[in-house]
Amino acid sequence: MTRKQRRATFIFVSLGILGLAAGLVLFALSDSVTFFYSPSEVAERGVEPGERIRLGGLVEEGSFQKLTDATVRFNVTDFVETMSVIYRGVLPDLFREGQGVVAEGAVQADGSFIADKVLAKHDENYMPPEVAAALKKSGNWQGEGAEASHSETYGQGSYP
Amino acid sequence: MIAELGHFALVLAFAVSLVQMTVPMVGAHRRDAQLIGIANPAALLQFLLVALAFGALVWLFVVSDFSVKLVFDNSHSEKPMIFKVSGVWGNHEGSMVLWVLILALFGAMVALFGNNLPDTLRARVLGVQASIAVAFLLFILITSNPFLRLDPAPFEGRGLNPILQDRALAFHPPWLYAGYVGFSMTFSFAIAALIEGKVDAAWARWVRPWTLAAWLSLTIGIAMGSWWAYYTLGWGGFWFWDPVENASLMPWIAGTALLHSAIVAEKRGALKSWTILLAILAFSLSLLGTFLVRSGVLTSVHAFAVDPARGIFILGILIVFVGGSLALYAWRAPLLKTGGIFAPVSREGALLMNNLLLSAAVASVFIGTLYPLLLDAISGAKITVGPPFFNYTFVPIFVPLLCLVPLGPLLGWKRADVKAAAERLMAAAGLAFIACLATFAVAHDGPWLAPFGMALAVWLVAGAASEIAWRIRLFSTPLSQSLDRARRLPRAAWGTALAHGGLGVAVAGIVGVTAWQSELITTLAPGESAEIAGYTLTLERVGMRDGPNYEATVGVVRVSQGGRDLGVLMPEKRRFPAERQEKTEPAIRTNGFADLYVVLGEPADDGKWVVRAYRNNLAPWIWIGGIVMSIGGIMSLADRRLRVGAPTRARLRAAPAE
């Protein structure tokens, strides 16, 4: 094999791998990212049943209900629109009414939202940035103080 | 007083590193021995000063001096001592001091043990190392001073986030940082080599132990972090493709590539400028990791602070170092002589293939991690790139790489005989095939990819064993001779086999947990039972227990299998009054092959409790694999040929013969 052929082989293989990687990335980006919406945005754009989204907002005061068999229902609100969420499993340690929450799951054919992951924050003063942004957008942001805080961490429900 | 002393030491360290950054560089340029001579004492002094500052900070945490804001924010007098100490780096400011401490420690090690490096190279390496210290010390002093006082001093601290009060997590950051910062050493060597315009085998031999040490630390740090996530986050996940995890995975993959390309640079003198580029990339990715974690652009367990000034400062550091080093590379790399011609099918070719695939893997993780940030900045759309993305990109790139792993070490340098190498792997291939069929027979209702995953795991382990068997001529010579060969086999060869085999064990664990996890979510009243994967769980009672700085609700769950009693598991929910937070503490019972994982949830109505249980098959193997890989790294590091300074000694011995 001459030097030239050798070089051609290397270039060919490298480009092949690069092309393959690029193709995989493009395919995955078109197919498997999850969008974050506030209840207002869901109402505005409409979400196809079965499409995975992250729904973020505050847990509406007084909306938390325990159903049977470790299943709970609560409302996620941005003070403009409200969506009912059903979740089966153990809630994050700091899930509370009136606090920020992110629920990941899909809207069902009957319009209810079934979450398989619920993320809550681990600190009184902290709100997930997505939720803060959603609240700012809907005009219900309570001031900067709520964002600048110490040692923010998400809780489990699953890992953020 | 102690706090001011610590602050003063940091300022002095900054001044010393300014000198260390400039004077030896000028000295190396002018070949002025006196100026070059500044490098060593400066590096040692810098380390002593940073160590003094760090020691002061530890002291303040140990004695719970709440007049210091950082201690007030992150500590509490009732906290167990181990978490008082780990609280030092359980926050932004303290963790940056730890970062610089490790940086200075590595510089001091070069100063102490680098006597046999060429003087100018050592001076330049220490100069580059000091420039990193300058940037980060300035960052600490301007935006993140850990020694700020509070007046009046509060009586009690606010405590440390309970999720960080954990033994594995206490030592996860130091390992991770040792890994990140370890790549600063290879970076400094790469930059120094570019300035010198020379890369030789001795250079590569110096770079390899540092790469190996950094890789080893990062492996241990990542494994610890994922183990912690597994047993603490309450559902048995071990890797979440969280951006912050990716931030540590990227330098690890780049470091793995560097480890392999440095072999080619050392043994064959080829891929020199590629090795330099990888050294730059590995450290750039470490810096990127620091930026992502410390800037607050990401939300996660690790984001300590949301402070735009800090983010912009670190972004500035990132741009200067990455941009500067890449520009230097573009300018100087063409000067490096290339050498070592090799055929596509050869050990070099295999290592190059490893590098290509690992680079593609890094790129896919990089895009998956940064694309959401980019999209948010451009269009404001918020997306999450989760596990599905990485399953589509990272996994298809990594699987071919894993398939090729056993082949590489069996190929000869320069030009190799694939047929001979394949014959040596016949037994491993046979075992992998049997594993595939056996897995399918036992667990045919699982995902169809799972049997292939198990085959891959067996292929890796058996392939690593085949390499050793071939090297010691097992079965082709008498056993005593083989044992003799095994004794004389270089430690690096054992290291390679262990690292590759450990990878196989970890793959088995990952496949096992991913494919065959059983889950149970139910509510139980005391006395009631539920079944999961052949186990019967009985909630006997729920009681309270007092911990050192928390109160726990404890569920007593009796486990039995087919009528045989297996003892009790006691999952807890801990409430930390000082921090006003709760933390779920799962209970795990393992038999080495599968974990039974039980979590106590909220009280449900009518005196029942939510109980979640998982059976995670092969879960322990993930970390056993990590441990085996780390042992492989340690074995390699202990190899005589790789010991720091060995090349020069060898040269000295050779000299009289000339």
Topology:
The complex is a heterodimer of chains A (160) and B (658).
Chain A: H1 3-31, E1 33-37, H2 39-45, E2 52-59, E3 65-66, E4 71-77, E5 82-88, E6 100-107, E7 113-120, H3 129-137
Parallel strand pairs in A: 1-2, 5-7
Antiparallel strand pairs in A: 2-4, 2-6, 3-4, 4-5, 6-7
Chain B: H1 2-30, H2 33-36, H3 39-62, H4 69-74, H5 81-86, H6 92-113, H7 119-143, H8 167-170, H9 172-196, H10 201-232, H11 243-268, H12 272-295, H13 308-332, H14 347-379, E1 383-385, H15 387-404, H16 418-424, H17 426-442, H18 450-471, H19 479-488, H20 491-515, E2 517-524, E3 529-532, E4 535-546, E5 551-561, E6 564-569, E7 572-576, E8 581-585, E9 587-590, E10 594-603, E11 609-617, H21 619-637, H22 646-654
Antiparallel strand pairs in B: 2-11, 3-4, 4-5, 5-6, 5-7, 7-8, 9-10, 10-11
3D architecture notes:
- The complex is a heterodimer of chains A (160) and B (658).
- Chain A has three helices and seven strands, in the order H-E-H-E-E-E-E-E-E-H.
- Chain A has 160 residues and is of the alpha+beta class.
- Chain A folds into two domains: 1-32; 35-146, OB fold (Dihydrolipoamide Acetyltransferase, E2P).
- Chain A has a five-stranded mixed β-barrel with strand order 2-4-5-7-6.
- Chain B has 658 residues and is α+β, with helices and mostly antiparallel strands.
- Chain B folds into four domains: 1-165, Four Helix Bundle (Hemerythrin (Met), subunit A); 166-404, no CATH class; 410-516 and 623-630, no CATH class; 518-617.
- Helices cover 63% and strands 12% of the residues of chain B.
- In chain B, the strands form two sheets. In chain B, strands 3, 4, 5, 6, 7 and 8 form a six-stranded antiparallel beta sheet that branches. In chain B, strands 2-11-10-9 form a four-stranded antiparallel beta sheet, with helices on one face.
- In chain B, strand 10 (594-603) and strand 11 form a beta hairpin.
- In chain B, helix 1 (2-30) packs antiparallel against helix 7 and helix 18 packs antiparallel against helix 20 (491-515).
- Chains A and B meet through helix 1, strand 1 and helix 3 of A and helix 14, strand 1, helix 15, strand 2 and strand 8 of B.
- Strand 1 of chain A pairs antiparallel with strand 1 of chain B, so a sheet runs across the interface.
